[in-house]
Amino acid sequence: MSEMNQEPNEHQEETPIDVSFTESSGPSPIQTPSRKPKKDKKHTAFLTIVLAAVVGLGAGLGGSWFAITHLGASGSSTTVTYATESGGSKTTSVASGSTGLTETQVAAKAAPSVVEILTEVQSTSSSFFGQSQSYTSEAAGSGVIISSDGYIITNNHVIENATSIKVTTYDGTEYTATLVGTDSKSDIAVLKIDATDLTAATIGDSSKIAVGDSTVVIGNPLGTLGGTVTDGIISATSREIVLNNESMELIQTNATINSGNSGGGMFDGNGNLIGIVNAKDSGTTSSGTVIEGIGFAIPINKAMDVAKQLMENGKVTDRATLGVYLQEITQATQQYSAGLYITSVVSGSGAEKAGLKAYDKIVSADGKDISSYSDLTAVLNKKSIGDTIDLTIERSSKSMDITVTLTGAVETTKTSNTSSIG
Q: Can you give the residue ranges of every domain in the chain?
């Protein structure tokens, strides 16, 4: 999904400064997948980043699974027993040496921890005669079990605005899930199902991955092919990508990712969970070059940090914020030049204590030029509570340098349909 730019409008609602997506990218309506490649009709100079969520057929959640077979790896081995799609069980020999596992062994170890997610979203539309009509749409995605007692990690955009959430495990059992917590900035959500003795993923360490390492992606492409396994390599370990106006550092892979894979697992060569799939790159360049083989996942170290806070507090509590609301102006007007403007300051925040005011234009942060919301979030993402940030602002056509001490989220009574506090 290409990043959103708001047109200048004196009456626009305010956009938050630093911690939330400015536009939700909730589940797409479930559709029958076409058998022919669908060409992107837009030709832009930039890659089109799209969330790899939530398109598929409504009913086919049986959970087919396959693995690519190779010769066994060297080293010691253990026997792994896992559930099959038919409700039975199967055993395989899984190598435990440092040389890694085969794709077959990775799939055998990891596939039982990946689930299919089906959501219902209630929407309202207006008819030609001005009458409102409510309708329900379905969408599908993926998730990964992170505890044997039923906690599941997925993407925020997979379950956003859902009125009901169904989870189907690898053995075909369907559960009604409850939402534990969600965080739009990191695109992470946690669900809970009433179950025990589930197969939880083995959590890896995304700080130890390297370009060229083998990787396996398991998910529910098209909403009908649950348990699908694709393989590839890690193409980049920390690619800065802007999704929905949020700057994120993601793992890049060439493993095949399709709509419905969002929330699924990216596993390393030993079957350890190293990422939560959340996006793919698609479309064409201005010259007509087709973009292929570019997918992204949230590093598991970041994802699990957020998940643990959601499980403990229902929200992220350790994120550094300025404590202001912003409006991004993309084109100069008679009153304002293009750039990022503060529209209000939260009482008790670091911004208020430092003397920031409404209508201040943020020109730079820690020496980096700022012209958009995502520019600022890229700087703030590297900060912790108690850190300082050096801002250069323009106020009444005069340049000023202000240092702000960042705080955690400050409670506010301000509400808006399109904004949240930063």
A: 15-19+319-405, 29-124+132-317
What is the Cβ-side half-sphere exposure of residue 331, based on CA atoms within 13 angstroms?
Answer: 6
Helices (H), 193-324: 300-313
Task: Give the domain 29-124+132-317 fold.
Answer: Thrombin, subunit H (2.40.10)
| pTM of the shown model | 0.72
The predicted-structure confidence for 57-102, as pLDDT tens digits, reads as follows 333 333 333 333 333 333 444 455 544 545 555 555 444 444 589 9
Q: Within 10 A of 374 (CB to CB), how many other CB atoms are there?
A: 23
- Fold classified for 15-19+319-405: Pdz3 Domain (2.30.42)
Active site residues: 157, 187, 262
Q: For the segment 156-189, what is each residue's pLDDT rounded down to a tens digit? A: 999 999 999 999 999 999 999 999 999 999 999 9
